[in-house]
Amino acid sequence: MVEPIKPPPTKKCRRDRSRGKSTGRSCATEVLEQQIWKAFPQDLFEAVIARLPVATFFRFRSVCRQWNSLLTSQSFSQLCAQVPQQHPWFYTITHENVNSGAMYDPSLKKWHHPTISTLPSKLIILPVASAGGLVCFLDIGHRNFYVCNPLTQSFKELPARSVKVWSRVAVGMTINGKPTGSGYKILWVGCDGEYEVYDSLRNSWSRPGSLPAGMKLPLSLNFRSQAVSIDSTLYFMRSDPEGIVSYDMATGVWKQYIIPVPLYLTDHTLAECDGQIMLVGLLTKNAATCVCIWELQRMTLLWKEVDRMPNIWCLDFYGKHVRMTCLGNKGLLMLSLRSKQMNRLVTYNIASKEWLRVPGCMVPCGRKRQWIACGTAFHPCLTATA
Predict the structure, then answer these.
(1) Are residue 339 and residue 233 in the same domain, yes or no?
(2) Which of 52, 190, 269, 378 sits at 20 to 30 Å (Cα–Cα) from 33?
(3) Residues 372 and 349 in one domain
(4) Distances from the Cα of 99 to the Cαs of 134, 230, 258, in angstroms?
(5) Angle between the 42-50 and 74-82 helix axes, to the nearest 10 degrees?
(6) pLDDT tens readout for residues 255-287
(7) For residue 196, what are the contacts with CB-CB under 8 A and spacing of at least 6?
(8) CA distance from start to end of the chain
(9) Are 193 and 49 in a shared domain?
(10) Best CA proximity match to 249, nearest among 187, 163, 182
(11) Do residues 204 and 179 touch, judged by C-beta distance below 8 A?
(12) Overall domain count for the chain
């Protein structure tokens, strides 16, 4: 028996193929019946929205008033607090636009250019610390503090300080607890030993005590390094003698640790990962320069090198006078490396030891890539209020 010869399959024209696809889409759409989805449980709906990427949520806010009102919902705020924190974002200030910041989302590898109308336009304000989704700003004259949520534009100008210190100060920020509504505290400290703590629940500055008698003054603080927070304790980097100064926001106790930095190190800053204090810096010897990562050994209080930037990347620095700025200090770092011949942005994941290049920050409707002047890392939070 010979099977009948089947004709070869005919190739469908593009019009027929598109018809089939459009039919499939219409069938899938018809399944989403309004009678079914309008009864979708509100608590489950909020749980799904709370787990969406932040950038996606802001597109959804324009759908209806109900979705837009989620920012002020107490139940939605509690659900957002239960979602594990992802990679932090970076709020940066560029040399060309000192009054408008740029935010970088490392998960999408995308720059955002927010328009925060509440920030003072006539003053130059710089991001100096962050906690709980909020960013603390200080004007360039070191007079006034501001707190803002860059995502929702929740804004607050802090009351005037009782101690009139207009010299440069180091700033640290912590939250009082995991819930976003539990308040936050801000500490500023000057080289002469003056310091104050702001409590958002009281909306006032106070000075709980004074520096220990054994702590050498002036503090010679390293202003290139932002404060690192672990639980309720802030850590500042100092020199002469080299080491770390800490302040516990809960107990009001100051401590000092004499820890010499590695040789040939420049532009070094503190960082933190899973409760461990890290050190990031440029190691320069002869004409070779490399970015190195150290970890503080708790028993010996000495720095131990744990990673280096790939050698093939470091070859671009050979013979160049490179300067580095570390924009974040918790888990994920953004390093701004620049010289007369180059301008490079790199992220470094401390836990996974992963180095990634960052696309250049460009002005909207512009072509020029901007140099990063300063910045801070913050965990985006939709419900954090200043």
Answers:
(1) yes
(2) 52
(3) yes
(4) 18, 30, 38
(5) 50
(6) 999 999 999 999 999 999 988 999 999 998 888
(7) 161, 162, 163, 187, 188, 205, 206, 207
(8) 85
(9) no
(10) 187
(11) no
(12) 2
